[in-house]
Amino acid sequence: MPRRTRILAYGGAAVLTVAGFGSAALGGIVAQVVAIALVSAGLGGALLFAFYEVGLSEDRDRAEEERRRRRGPGASR
């Protein structure tokens, strides 16, 4: 994932989380419901992005291993 995309993704998740905590500070039942939704979306989004990055790195590793295997055992880089 490009650096800019990563910053935007995690930054957006952080903004949602901070907005949720800010909403919780306002008090009231509606603010609490909004806070729960925003914090859940922010933290859940960050977790999903982390899993996505792990999957991408595994795909890159698998592709590199496949390239090495196709070159043969005696081939040099």
Structure report:
The protein is mainly alpha-helical and 77 residues long. It has one domain (3-70). The protein is built from 2 helices and no strands. Helix 1 (3-26) packs antiparallel against helix 2 (29-71).
User: How many angstroms does the end-to-end distance come to?
Assistant: 25 Å
Q: Structural class given helices, strands, pairing?
A: mainly alpha
SS strand fraction? under 5%
Integer average pLDDT: 92
Quick take:
The protein contains two helices and no strands.
Strand and helix map with partners:
Elements: H1 3-26, H2 29-71
Notable traits:
single chain; 77 residues; mainly alpha; 87% helix; 0% strand; rod-shaped
